[in-house]
Amino acid sequence: MSDRLLAAYDYVLPEALIAQTPCVPRDGARLLVVKDQVQHGHAIVRTLPDLLREGDLLVLNNTRVIPARLYGHKLGGMPVEVLLLEPQAGGDRAAGTTHCWLALVKPGKRLKPGATIVFSGQDAKESTSDRVLSATVMAIDAATGGRILQFDVPAGTLLDEWINQLGQMPLPPYITQTEAHPDQYQTVYADRPGAVAAPTAGLHFTPELLQRLQAQGIEQAFVTLHVGVGTFRPVEAETITDHTMHAEWIEVPPETVAKIQQTKAKGGRIIAVGTTVVRSLESAVQSGMIQPFCGKSNLFIYPGYQWQVVDGLMTNFHLPKSSLMMLVSALIGRQRLLALYQIAIAEQYRFYSFGDAMLILPEAREERDERLKDEG
């Protein structure tokens, strides 16, 4: 089947393998190690220092998940659920003064432009109170089917304060029975608020593991990609090249670029922790070289992509037909990835956000690139 067909990225996962609660401790999760185009092994995340080389560089996404799921009601009492996606132009996001957001809403058909949503436990009749947060639906976003919401923030307060007070952690819909604490859906190095989903490969790291990696000469650098609808939006086009990614905000700072350049100059490898890091680094390439970058990117990586920066990848197991599966397939090949997923299923690995992980060593990609060169 062609790599360009959406159906080529499908697989059947037993529901029992969808992880509902994260591994404790974090670095006790299982790790499927992809050594080359044939060999694989089984390990534990905490053994990562033994699987990488001195001089390698781990790049991690330091975004922090905000409590983006809000519950309220329309004037008149109808319950409303809102998932904030990303702030819109205007205001200072860092200062909490961005009052206009793109959001997914339920029930969408009942929330047309002009509708008012009240986000407090007070009666809708008191919506003019200076102690109540409300929002007006300004427009419908054609690309996502979401709504542009303009928040009316009580005087003397910041919208971020209200979100932190009223919001809930936006766990994915396939996590239906969990005892996870909200902090378990954050990486231990998360310090840049703005994501509405966690960069899940990073959930496996502990401060102790990061220290051990550092002590072994495996350096670390950070990027920021505020995970949003671009990452988890389903691919619906039957031919994947017809799919357009929703742009997400990325920052690749100068210090990270410098570390990458130094690592490559010394013969080290760039290991991305998560697909969001992959998209961040590859989006920052200009004229064949990585450059500091701050802005939005809708880069869609699928088989045939020419890699510029990333050598290896640590990633969780992804949903069928997702853009994330297509990205990983671009690194090691679709058929190889699907075969590995069948191995993981047979070995009872745990899947998705709270699940186990896969480490694709650079040798696996290098061997595939060499084979494709010979075939071409």
UniProtKB/TrEMBL annotation:
GO CC field: cytoplasm
UniProt pathway annotation: tRNA modification; tRNA-queuosine biosynthesis
Keywords linked to the UniProt accession: Cytoplasm, Isomerase, Queuosine biosynthesis, S-adenosyl-L-methionine, Transferase
Keyword Cytoplasm: yes
One Gene Ontology term from the biological process aspect of the record: tRNA queuosine(34) biosynthetic process
Chain ranges passing through the membrane: none
GO MF term list: S-adenosylmethionine:tRNA ribosyltransferase-isomerase activity
Pfam family, one: Queuosine_synth
Reaction it catalyzes: 7-aminomethyl-7-carbaguanosine(34) in tRNA + S-adenosyl-L-methionine = epoxyqueuosine(34) in tRNA + adenine + L-methionine + 2 H(+)
Subcellular location, record wording: Cytoplasm
Annotated EC: 2.4.99.17
InterPro entries xref list: QueA, QueA_dom1, QueA_dom2, QueA_sf
Tree of life domain: Bacteria
Subunit structure: Monomer.
Family the entry assigns: Belongs to the QueA family.
HAMAP family registered for this protein in UniProt: QueA
Biological function: Transfers and isomerizes the ribose moiety from AdoMet to the 7-aminomethyl group of 7-deazaguanine (preQ1-tRNA) to give epoxyqueuosine (oQ-tRNA).
Name of the protein in question: S-adenosylmethionine:tRNA ribosyltransferase-isomerase
Organism expressing this protein natively: Stenomitos frigidus ULC18
Lineage of origin: Bacteria, Bacillati, Cyanobacteriota, Cyanophyceae, Leptolyngbyales
Gene symbol of the encoding locus: queA
